[in-house]
Amino acid sequence: MEIKMKRSYIICLGLVLTVSCKELTDLEVLASAPTRCTYEHAYDMLGAHCGGLRLTKIPSLRGGIEILDFSDNKLLEIHAETLSSYSSIKFLYLSENQIYMIDKDAFASLSYLETLDLSKNVILALPDSLFQLPSLRKLYLNGNPLLHMSFKDLIITKPIQAPLELLDLSDCKLDKLPDWGILPNLVLYNISQNPLTTLEPQHFSTMCKLAKVDLTESIDKLKLCELKATVIWFQEKNVYFHLNDYNRLNSREFDNCPKPEISATLNASYHLCESVYTQVQNIKTSRRTWLTIGGGLAGFLVGFVLLLYIMHRHNVAQTKRTAKEKTTAADKNATTNLLNDVS
């Protein structure tokens, strides 16, 4: 009996120690969690990590940062001065805040911004200037359930200047997709988890480089025959569209839907998009060519000036050497003449 009691006591003591150690470990983890923004380099860029600090505003940070992670905080508004001191930012992550208001010039100073993550906020409206950023390639707006109210009245200056390649509008409660106009660089388009009531091929005809559309849980309310024209358009243009269930489209009912003709307007929009894309690429190529030529000329001029400088230094040194030799020779002659006079 005594042995059993001792054994039970040892087991209980072990359990107590285990629990105490676990609590201590959790406390240590909490104590070691960062309480302010930290800095590190990634891909030769300086980044500031401020995620998960529950901050209500962006603190004063080092200049020259190119990556800012301010996700999982309590930011409510973005004003023109909020980010004006960080014009070198290329990657900005503001997901999982409580952002509801964005000034029209909030991102005006971020001309190098390539990726902007505004997902999982409560944004009421988007400024038109956001779509005119010259370097913006990836825009994440997913998980903003109030955006659908402003998209109905959203007025965007067209054509959009931002060279968007990825646009994520998933889970935004959209029943109709916004009219973006021509998006010649768009490759990935995520419109999943939206209760769409219409899906027209016209919306995609101005996206001539589109490769993938995510429609997961977005077309369940649409009748099969209403999807026929868009599906045919995707197939003709080799656009992969992702669904969680393809059975509806593989049914006899869908096959029996009348096959609509692709209108001339759709093809005209598509070709216009292609011409815009070609024009943009030609401008980029010309710019690179002129930069190459300019760089070559600059290198040639620098080399030429350096050569002239070296030749000048050589001539100066030679002149000094000749003068020194003449002086030395004159001194020798004078010495010889003096010795002859003495003798």
What does it look like?
It is a single chain. The protein is α/β, with parallel strands linked by helices and 343 residues long. It is built from five helices and twelve strands. Strands 1-2-3-5-7-8-9-10-11-12 form a ten-stranded mixed sheet, with no helix packed on it. The protein is elongated, with a radius of gyration of 35 Å. Residues 1-32 have low confidence and may be disordered.
What does the largest sheet look like?
Answer: 10 strands, mixed
Radius of gyration based on Cα positions = 35 Å
Shape: elongated
Averaged pLDDT: 85
**Physical arrangement of strands within the biggest beta sheet:** 1-2-3-5-7-8-9-10-11-12
Straight-line distance between termini: 135 Å
Helix/sheet category = alpha/beta
Poorly predicted tracts of residues: 1-32
Strand content: 5-15%
Please trace the helix and strand order, writing H or E for each element: HEEEEEEEEHEEEHEHH
Percentage of residues assigned to helices: 25-40%
- Count of beta strands: 12
Helical stretch tally: 5
Summary, kept brief:
This protein has 343 residues and is of the alpha/beta class. 38% of the residues lie in helices and 11% in strands. It is elongated.
What layout of secondary structure does this protein have?
Layout (H helix, E strand, L loop, with lengths): L1 H31 L5 E5 L2 E5 L17 E3 L7 E2 L12 E3 L7 E2 L12 E3 L20 E3 L6 H5 L14 E3 L19 E3 L21 E3 L9 H13 L3 E3 L9 H4 L8 H79 L1
